[in-house]
Give the backbone structure.
Amino acid sequence: MNEDIFKDILGEATWWILGFAAIWFARGFIEEFISGVMMLWGDDVNLDDNLLLGQDERRWRVIRMTPMKTIFHGDLRDGGRGKMIIRNSQLKALIIKKKLVNGYDDGARQPKNSRN
């Protein structure tokens, strides 16, 4: 009788431990995916935006956004052009600037109540 109780407890505890271990190892993927979805749903950075990245403010254009990464085309230090792939969770560490045209985002429409 005691052996059956011990086997039941050990079996249930094993599943709990395996479940917590799976969640622990998948935590990075889950965080990355959530930050990517927030980037896709947000309106701060959109496709075809021309951004100034880093302290040297090099011009980069967003060409693709996925839940895991954002891909840019832009200028390299040697004067050439390059492709940069950044994980969405690492974008928060970059200095990102967006040029405004007449006080508005490049692709944004002017509000109807503008005083022009």
Summary: Strands lie at 50-53, 58-65, 69-75, 81-87, 96-98, 100-101, 104-105. The first helix runs from residue 2 to 41. Residues 2-104 form a domain with the SH3 type barrels. fold (CATH 2.30.30).
